[in-house]
Amino acid sequence: MAAGHGGDGGRRERAARRDASLRSGRAALLTSLVVLAVSLAVLVWSVSGPGAALVQWGGGPSSAKATGGTASPGSFAEDGHRGLPGGGAPSGGGTGRPTGEDALVDNPLYATGRLAPLPCPAPDLDVTESASMKALLDTVADCLDHTWATQFARAGIPYDPPQRVFWEVPGTSPCRDYPSSAGAFYCRASKSIYIGTSDVVRKWNGVEDPAVYASLLAHEYSHHVQGESGLLDYYHEQRRNEADRSVQNSWTRKSELQANCMAGAFLGAVRVSFPLGDAERANVLDDAAATADREGSSDDERTHGSADNSVRWMDHGIAKQDPGVCNTWSAADDLVQ
Q1: Is the previous residue joined to 161 through a cis bond, with omega within 30 degrees of 0?
Q2: Domain limits, the chain
Q3: Rounded to whole angstroms, how far apart are CA atoms 249 and 189?
Q4: Where is this region: Disordered (predicted)?
Q5: How far is Cα 194 from Cα 89, in angstroms, rounded to an integer?
Q6: CA-closest candidate to residue 73, choices 300, 321, 310, 329
Q7: Neighbours of 61 (CB within 10 A)
């Protein structure tokens, strides 16, 4: 009996070693496949070169069908009102950044080509743990810092990354208190992105897909990109000069839809390593529709664009991965409603 028990133990040990060897082999194979995929993405990007800067294209949303308004969208602010930026933005004059209307419609950033497909593997996410959410946001923010610093260097525009306030305890920014009605916001006065690590999970109904939160962060980060590229200064000036609320909102929609497109460009650039597969892409586009303006809203209320256009610009960015295709300021009117 003792010998038989010992033999069983030996078999178990040999089996355990085989299992460990198989697991090790599978892990090595998976790592090799990821490295190969990223290398191929870099090669394809290098060979294909910059994407064409198109701002008038047809077609509708590829997946999301929603009436909008099921979650509070992110925004950027100067005066504490959601989605309605006011004065107080740091001036771009004398900084080497583009100025005037050219900053909107002919920004050097538009000519920098596709974003480099940098590796950006997402950590595991447990939405019930604030530390886990912060780890995800910090990882994605690091990738965004690297991605956009590279792009600004190509454009010859000085660039400083935004500050991050991934908060658990309520507080105050120069733009507004938090938490607020927005799930996340960018404050130009402090050049900071504010996201509540638990608050955002509540506002997004506990969604567990890291790509959705990466999309939200990338959208707010894109407002910082707009600011650093000189675009926001002219935008603020023109918007302040408009007395009609509906005309003001038309400016805001272009800014928000451009941020959607730039967020999509980032997600498309890192989609191999993050990853962003079909399911994650569908979730991101569903979220773009859900955070758009409510269907039937008046012109005095519409600041983020229709569900169709919100999805269209996000998906266009994912597909092209080029800030040059995100020029909402020169787009046809029906694409920025």
Answers
A1: no
A2: 1-48, 55-335
A3: 21
A4: 59-105, 288-312
A5: 17
A6: 310
A7: 20
| pLDDT 10s digits, 57-67 | 333 333 333 33
Distance CA 290, CA 235 (A): 26
Percent of the chain, pLDDT > 70?
72
Identity of the residue numbered 62: S
**How confident is the model over 49-91, as pLDDT tens digits?**
333 333 333 333 333 333 333 344 455 554 323 333 333 343 3
Q: Does 329 or 74 have the greater pLDDT score? A: 329
What pLDDT does residue 300 have? 83
Quick one: pLDDT at residue 176? 94
Provide the token pair at 275. 């990853």
* Distant-in-sequence, close-in-space partners of 59: CB < 8 Å, separation ≥ 6: 312
Instruction: Return the HEC string of the chain.
Output: CHHHHHHHHHHHHHHHHHHHHHHHHHHHHHHHHHHHHHHHHHHHHHHHCCCCCCCCCCCCCCCCCCCCCCCCCCEEECCCCCCCCCCCCCCCCCCCCCCHHHHHHCCHHHHCCCCCCCCCCCCCCCCCCHHHHHHHHHHHHHHHHHHHHHHHHHHCCCCCCCEEEEECCCEECCCCEECCCCCEEEECCCCEEEEECCHHHHHCCCCCCHHHHHHHHHHHHHHHHHHHCCHHHHHHHHHHCCCCHHHHHHHHHHHHHHHHHHHHHHHHHCCCCCCCCHHHHHHHHHHHHHCCCCCCCCCCCCCCCCHHHHHHHHHHHHHHCCHHHHCHHHCCHHHCC
Average pLDDT over residues 138-166: 98
CA distance 8 to 6: 5
